[in-house]
């Protein structure tokens, strides 16, 4: 893992340059995208670069990591809605080239069709990840099998607690989600993981310096050959 530390602004600018390089070299690149508070500044930077003509997503495709089960794309807490409003409407990507897993898959066999779609598009060139306080990537909670493909998960109470700030009450937070699996993520050619703030410092230490273990899903990224971890000074504060 290559660790890049700076102010949030600095590392966001550096991460955005990865997109500029990739899309200049391969305009039809396949991007793996993430939701949450972490990617928001990066998405704003990508939109700015796109508006300035320094970056184009006109031929790119995107596949998001995850979606809540039971939320329509029009629900303001669905990840489809998040992506439309925080990125897609501000860049030149074609709406039909953007993919978010359906929150209405009925079982894992149907969920896995997402992996087939990704493969048919040529595989993910660059996967963006945030990290949960418990080390989850996408909604792959601790102990998710290393071999998992896109599947339905029951959310842990800690994840529902962490996300309840976006809903009126904990009861409204969905209990299940559909997420790319660990194997799906590991198939990406390159991966960028971002984390900001002291709240992420401990899990970042376990991710970067701990032994790879399915108890900390993000630590498994140590087994991938091209992972960059972008951290602000707070998130990096416990690294030796
Ligand atoms: P956050 O969430 O970006 O809102 O911190 C990250 C995650 O849970 O994957």
From TrEMBL:
- Catalytic residues identified in the record: 66, 134, 136, 141
A matching Pfam family: Glucosamine_iso
Annotated GO MF terms: glucosamine-6-phosphate deaminase activity
Sorted alphabetically, which keywords does the UniProt record give? Carbohydrate metabolism, Hydrolase
Alphabetical list of CDD domains matching this protein: GlcN6P_deaminase
As recorded in UniProt, its EC number(s) are 3.5.99.6
What catalytic activity does the UniProt entry give for this protein? alpha-D-glucosamine 6-phosphate + H2O = beta-D-fructose 6-phosphate + NH4(+)
Instruction: State which pathway it belongs to.
Output: Amino-sugar metabolism; N-acetylneuraminate degradation; D-fructose 6-phosphate from N-acetylneuraminate: step 5/5
InterPro entries xrefs: Glc/Gal-6P_isomerase, GlcN6P_deaminase-like, Glucosamine6P_isomerase, Glucosamine6P_isomerase_CS, NagB/RpiA_transferase-like
Q: What class of enzyme is it?
A: hydrolase
Instruction: Give the protein family.
Output: Belongs to the glucosamine/galactosamine-6-phosphate isomerase family. NagB subfamily.
**Name of the protein this chain belongs to:** Glucosamine-6-phosphate deaminase
Q: Which gene encodes it?
A: nagB
């Amino acid at each position: 893992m290559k660790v890049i530390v700076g102010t949030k602004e600095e590392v966001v600018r550096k991460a955005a340059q990865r997109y500029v390089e990739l899309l200049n070299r391969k305009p039809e690149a396949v991007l793996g995208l993430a939701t949450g508070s972490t990617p928001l500044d990066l998405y704003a930077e990508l939109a700015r670069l796109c508006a300035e003509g320094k970056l184009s997503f006109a031929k790119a495709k995107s596949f998001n990591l995850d979606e809540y089960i039971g939320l329509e794309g029009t629900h303001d807490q669905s990840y489809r809605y998040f992506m439309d409003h925080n990125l897609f409407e501000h860049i030149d990507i074609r709406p039909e080239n953007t993919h978010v897993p359906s929150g209405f898959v009925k079982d894992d066999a149907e969920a896995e069709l997402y992996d087939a779609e990704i493969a048919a598009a040529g595989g993910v060139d660059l996967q963006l990840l945030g990290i949960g306080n418990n080390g989850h990537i996408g909604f792959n909670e601790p102990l998710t099998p290393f071999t998992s493909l896109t599947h339905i998960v029951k959310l842990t109470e800690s994840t529902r607690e962490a996300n309840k700030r976006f809903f009126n009450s904990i009861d409204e937070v969905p209990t299940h989600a559909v997420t790319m699996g660990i194997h799906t993520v590991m198939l990406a050619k390159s991966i960028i993981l971002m984390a900001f703030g002291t709240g992420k410092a401990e899990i970042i230490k376990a991710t970067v310096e701990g032994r790879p273990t399915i108890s900390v899903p993000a630590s498994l990224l140590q087994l991938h050959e091209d992972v960059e971890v972008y951290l602000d000074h707070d998130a990096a504060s416990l690294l030796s």
